Amino acid sequence: MPALAGPDEPWNLQPTLAGWHASLAINQRGRDMGAGEAFAWWRLPWTWTRPSGWAIEPHLAAGLGWLGGRGETAGTFRLGPAFSVRPPESPFWIELGISPTLLTRHTFGGLNLGINFQFTSYAGMNWDVTRHLGLGYRFEHMSNASLSSHNPGLNSHTFTIYYRF
């Protein structure tokens, strides 16, 4: 069973990392759609560590950006849990997360996302190039979870650059 470390230090407001996501939609419904987002992660005060050295760290992830295409642009805001899965002594790590997402509009030309409230789930791989600079890729899926009769969903390739504090 993995060891669960309790709060090892008080939670503070300095993010663990911050950066930029650039996304391109890949499904047919989302063609011609793209997004950009400034984001930050705050490490939560728990860590699960396996005897092998693998660690799972929970984070609070927030993003502020835009989603656009087909002559229309929306502002976006998301906030939700994320997890990093780290092997011992490796610059590579996995990220998993889901965030409730607010949009300032939900129609883009002929694409109707249903409502302004969506969920964005993702899984990706990151590389700490240096102690502070990193690059990543993640697959994202955004949909309203059938809260609306229109729920086409949007799948995206997302590329990341980040700074680790």
From TrEMBL:
Q: Does the keyword Hydrolase apply?
A: yes
Q: Which UniProt keywords apply?
A: Hydrolase
One Gene Ontology molecular-function label: hydrolase activity
Q: Pfam families, per this entry? A: PagL (PF09411)
Q: Kindly provide the name given to this protein in its UniProt entry.
A: Acyloxyacyl hydrolase
